[in-house]
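ok new one. same drill as before - structure tokens go in, u give me an amino acid for every spot. 133 of them this time. try not to just spam alanines like last time pls lmao
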């Protein structure tokens, strides 16, 4: 039995996907993909499954463990883990180029992170206002 483990990151979310031969089930934190809420997050996670050929997605079971961050960050990390896992499982260059042409962040992560807060204000850029009256 062939098993492939892949990971995806987005902001502070980390998703680990296990792709194995099966019947096409996708579980995220032991919950079926059909029951994932909100719907927009489910649609983001489904993108690589819809792009990949049916003969690939119907023959694999994907189990994802995702931690950290918010709902959308977790969805995008899961999406990346699924796409990387399918590419590693099939060893298909065509599938990889299809994902990259559709959206590069499916394979190559988005390196943007939160800017650290500085002194003299409540946030990274905001400062205390001055009044000269």
């Amino acid at each position: 039995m062939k098993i492939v483990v892949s990971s995806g990151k987005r902001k502070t979310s980390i998703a680990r996907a296990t792709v194995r031969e099966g019947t096409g089930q996708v579980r995220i934190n032991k919950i079926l993909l059909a029951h994932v809420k909100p719907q927009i997050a489910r649609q983001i996670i489904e993108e690589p499954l819809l792009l990949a050929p049916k003969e690939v997605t119907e023959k694999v079971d994907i189990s994802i463990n995702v931690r950290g961050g918010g709902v959308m960050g977790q969805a995008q990390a899961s999406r990346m883990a699924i796409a990387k896992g399918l590419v590693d499982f099939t060893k298909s260059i065509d599938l990889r180029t299809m994902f990259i042409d559709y959206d590069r962040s499916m394979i190559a992560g988005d390196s943007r992170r939160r800017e650290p807060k500085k002194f003299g204000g409540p946030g990274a850029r905001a400062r205390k206002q001055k009044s000269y009256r």
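The longest helix spans residues 71-90. and btw The first strand starts at residue 3 and ends at 10.
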